[in-house]
What does this fold into?
Amino acid sequence: MRRTLLSLLTLLLLMPSAAQASHTSSGTWFPFEPMGSPRAFHSSTLLADGAVLVAGGQSSFYRTLDTAEIYDPETDDWTPTGSMSSARAFHGAVRLQDGRVLVHDDAGAAELYDPEDGAWTPTGSLHEGRTTSTTTLLSDGRVLVVGTSSGPLDLGEEPPADSEPGPATAETYDPQTGVWTPAATSAVARDLVFTATLLRDGRVLVAGGGTRAAEIYDPQTDTWMPTADLSDARGGHVAVRLDDGRVLVAGGAGDSGNLATVEIYDPETGRWQSAPSMRSPRLNGKAVLLDDGRVLVAAGEHGSRLTTGEIYDPGSGIWTPAGPMTAARWGEAFTLMEDTRVLATGGLQGLGPDDVLASTEVFARNTT
It folds into this structure.
């Protein structure tokens, strides 16, 4: 059933006037259409037609899901789509250049979603499973997965006391052949959640993971090169490529606890520069590059789960508050939609087995 009118009325009621907004926050979160199923630690992928595909995750009582659903902005509704051949959570997902969506899990299994018929098809398996990994669409259409099998699934879990993190391994997926090919192994052990960011020149910046070390992977030569270290060892941080090609890294956990510090990497110089800190430390947050070039950072945790958010302006170097989220979420997913709004889906609101959310919300930035 269409509920567009209700959503618009809710937005009008919740959004402050332009005069208020300029003095209070850079935007507003408002409740949105709930998904058909509660889920956390799922994937959320913007499709080529502007719809959003949500797949897998964990539901109530820790049940792992194989189901998927689509948010259609034309009808303002969620509808079920084809189910995956395997249930999975904490998985990687990326939209390929041909519009299909690749997902892969910590066991090494992978499959493809075709929006044309709403069906999933198994594809080649990875050569090894990875419990902590990143998934990056390369400029040539291949997909790079970097990770380690010795790290925890999430910063809330600790690895066994006798485990030692090994260097992060990598492989690439070719959508034309459906085959994964082992890539060169990183020289750095990363035992916490790290980030991999595609640079303008096609190389990939990998940073953090419980270390200050950063590296550059070149997919054309299949080589890793060290680059300047971060100022702070960090893991569970966010990383976003800015419109000017630099990379913003913020928050996470470091040697002294959760971090509010921010660093920006310049690929032209290969150096990091300190930037103004966020207003609050933030671990396991989410970050999105907005359509106007600013960066939204929200959710995460610091002592408790956070509903707060803030926006970084690369032009001024200033952080401004973003309106509070309508619910504290953990294991949620953020997706920038074509209409410039940010969709937050699902997650956990507590630690109980029945605390999984089907609710969603949308962030609308102020335009004045």
Q: What stands out?
A: The chain has a mean pLDDT of 89. The first strand starts at residue 27 and ends at 32. The radius of gyration is 20 Å. Residues 4-14 form the longest helix (11 residues).
